[in-house]
């Protein structure tokens, strides 16, 4: 059970179907809850989506939620180009012809989704396992790139808020006193289950976690888990995420009493968290976070690469 459950905000909710729950977190602002949440902002008879879930079936449920509310979907904002958040967009574009908006680098990836498995596989042609829907979405048409700050998306006055680190150009979307904050924070149940949260830039992620509770919003709706109120609830969530990442970075440094390569470092860190990795996809996700810890330490001048007998080792500086 999530520690956030008691802090969640329930202004009203309806069940779209057994897979997706519709929760009104502020007037006209809904969180469609599933494996990956979708935001739905209603103004008059139109709606703006924030992300679109993993696939066609998630997108269909968002469509059904809009129908139940008697609104038509006008556009979708993609917070970051991870397939579980924008995989449903292509279906909505085929079905409704709606425009998509996304932050710069995320827009580039969502328009060319092979980039996601390519970077996970160190730039080489990705293995077949990385070409499934969890890491390879269908391409989307991006109408315009969104920069951080106030903006108009198809008539909706919103604010894009930079939340980098989990993905390079991740942005949240704020409307009134609510911010959809994407994967800037994970609920405790995700941290408990996956142990090593995905992050590409650890320093940026930690900076985002420092800033998030200070932002002037009343509620924070993450991409996974329930919405959190300002104050203690969001502060506690940011603290658990920050503690997890800094612990991972400390583990990496502690294991470098002797030089190690990335693979053995990853094995040691997984051991510290009693994590049993069971798929190549999970391995590459965890490896990215371990590398993010290494680059954070390298930037701080405490770790450096060492080439030894054609092995790249990491050693303390
Ligand atoms: Zn993500």
Description:
- The structure is a single chain.
- The chain is of the alpha+beta class.
- The chain has two domains: 5-247, Ribonuclease Z/Hydroxyacylglutathione hydrolase-like (Metallo-beta-lactamase, Chain A); 248-316, Orthogonal Bundle (Arc Repressor Mutant, subunit A).
- It contains ten helices and 17 strands.
- The protein has helices at 56-68, 83-86, 89-96, 104-111, 115-120, 188-194, 202-211, 232-254, 262-272, 280-299; strands at 13-17, 20-26, 29-33, 38-43, 46-50, 72-77, 100-103, 142-146, 149-153, 156-162, 171-175, 178-182, 219-222, 228-229, 260-261, 303-308, 311-316.
- The strands form three sheets. An eight-stranded mixed β-sheet has the order 1-2-3-4-5-6-7-8. Strands 9-10-11-12-13-14 form a six-stranded mixed β-sheet, with helices on one face. The protein has a three-stranded antiparallel β-sheet with strand order 15-17-16.
- α1 packs across α3.
- The radius of gyration is 20 Å and the shape is globular.
- It starts with 12 loop residues before the first strand and ends with a strand.
- The structure holds zinc ion (ZN).
